[in-house]
Design goal:
Helices cover 50% and strands 13% of the residues. α1 crosses α2 and α7 crosses α9. β4 and β5 form a beta hairpin. The protein folds into two domains: 140 residues, Conserved hypothetical protein from pyrococcus furiosus pfu- 392566-001, ParB domain (Alpha-Beta Complex); 147 residues, no CATH class. The relative contact order is 0.10. The C terminus is likely disordered. The chain is elongated, with a radius of gyration of 25 Å. The chain contains ten helices and six strands; from the N terminus they run αβββαββαβααααααα. The protein has a six-stranded mixed beta sheet with strand order 1-3-5-4-6-2, with helices on one face. By secondary structure, the protein is α/β, with parallel strands linked by helices. This is DUF4032 domain-containing protein. Pfam families: DUF4032.
Length: 306
Amino acid sequence: MSAFSTNQAKTDVERARLLADVRDFLSVLRGMHNELTPFDWVRHLAPDAEYQLGVQAIPVDHIIGSVDRYREFDRYYLPKEKHLDERWVGIRRAQLEGKELPPIQVYKVGELYFVKDGNHRVSVARRQGQAYIDANIIELHVTVPPSEGDTLKDMIIKGEYAHFLRATKLDEVSPNHKDIFFTKPGRYAKLLEHIEARRYYLDLKPGRERPVTWEEAVESWYRRLYSRIVENIEAHGVMRRFPGRTEADLYLWVMDHRYFLSEKYGHDVGSEMATLDFSKNFAPKLHKRIGQRMKLAWRGKSEPRL
């Protein structure tokens, strides 16, 4: 049994590495990444608490990254280097012989997992189509969880969004608010400026007996400014003309354009006119939009990852 299981395990690891090479080649052709997510990226999500959950069975296909072995396996946890063979073969042989393997150790972030210890066990389990694996779990709480396939930029943006949500308490002020995601970092500071400006404007209204609170300014900004522009964007199908962008991207552009038009005409033109005029004058040309959509489709996504 030992010789058979050893030979079978060696065959399995060779096939796994060959498949990893094929997937690497295809990922280059499609312009997609084929790596595990480094756990270090999670710090950009601004985790604010840690919990020990003990040993539980977790879905193997929800394991997307590793603490320190993310360069040695591809995103499907296939082994990429020959020096991994010995350990991989040992685990596969133990599996074939029915031996019980100890739980792996993982960090849980949202509904996804990063391996702290047990990368080879995950690789063998995933290659054999195993649905679940026992894991000792440490959960990190984040306000905005990661998604499979997130890039470093995506996680930076989500971390900025988490800070924005904490600063504005938007989840409390407007519990049913839509997610506000950008496609580039550094944009949430502009939203905070808009809220401060909204607070200043409300304080100037005649008859106020007390200063406007931060929470009141946040609620007014979201309901009277952000939501109205998003409603205009949806009502007029503007997003179709800006493939790969988000409503939040459009909101900032429309707000800047509204200011420009209001200065030009000497009065506030309103959010709807600003939205329509911006769409008419600044949407990419048709051939560019088609190219952008083809590029997104080729990479396996029709909307921004966020």
